[in-house]
């Protein structure tokens, strides 16, 4: 770039402002097919409980497994053996914003047939810290989704006690595809 090009570039960019860092969702797996975004009036209501959140002590690790989930699945999830499909960063966000973001993230993950998620909530130094309030809310809210099979504390390289691995059930379409794929092999 010569001097004239440099001046021209600076002149063209003088009124440009940097974008705010607002991308809190990181899709690690691209969806197989494009899905249309639902129109505002088609978006389902957020059914996650609002209001008082009972704080879970920091000393108590978060873990949940739906009825019928094998312990081996939970162990593999806890050890980070499943490849992550997407992550949601909720650091330093208000509780209501976290509730909305989590709801929308889970809907999008279901539509994209994602199975393994990482939710980064942060952690505090004491039980009443903001990070722990968010952590407690997420533990409560995730159990309200029928698609959530299990969740547990992440490995240190993914955030440790400041993050959760979430395992979702297969969609009906994924089950059919899996049956077809394995049926072809057995012939």
Automatic annotation (TrEMBL):
- State the protein's name: DNA endonuclease SmrA
The taxonomy runs: Bacteria, Pseudomonadati, Pseudomonadota, Gammaproteobacteria, Enterobacterales
- Species this protein is from: Winslowiella iniecta
- Keywords for this entry? Endonuclease, Hydrolase, Nuclease
Domain of life from the UniProt record:
Bacteria
User: Which GO molecular function entries does the Swiss-Prot or TrEMBL record give?
Assistant: DNA endonuclease activity
Enumerate the PANTHER family for this protein. DNA ENDONUCLEASE SMRA-RELATED
Database matches in SUPFAM superfamilies: SMR domain-like (SSF160443)
Q: Where is the Smr domain?
A: 88-169
């Amino acid at each position: 770039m010569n001097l004239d090009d440099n001046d021209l570039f600076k002149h063209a960019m003088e009124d440009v402002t940097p974008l705010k860092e607002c991308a809190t969702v990181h899709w690690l797996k691209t969806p197989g097919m494009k899905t249309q975004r639902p129109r505002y009036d088609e978006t389902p209501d957020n059914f996650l409980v609002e209001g008082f959140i009972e704080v879970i002590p920091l000393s108590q690790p978060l873990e949940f497994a739906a009825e019928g989930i094998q312990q081996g699945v939970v162990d593999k999830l806890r050890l980070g053996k499943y490849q992550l499909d997407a992550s949601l960063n909720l650091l330093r966000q208000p509780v209501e914003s976290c509730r909305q973001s989590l709801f929308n993230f889970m809907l999008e993950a279901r539509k994209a047939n994602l199975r393994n998620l990482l939710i980064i909530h942060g952690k505090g130094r004491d039980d009443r810290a903001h990070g722990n309030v968010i952590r407690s809310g997420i533990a409560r809210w995730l159990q309200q989704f029928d698609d959530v099979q299990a969740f547990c504390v992440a490995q240190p390289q993914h955030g440790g006690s400041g993050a959760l691995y979430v395992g979702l059930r297969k969609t009906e379409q994924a089950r059919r595809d899996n049956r077809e794929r394995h049926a072809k092999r057995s012939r």
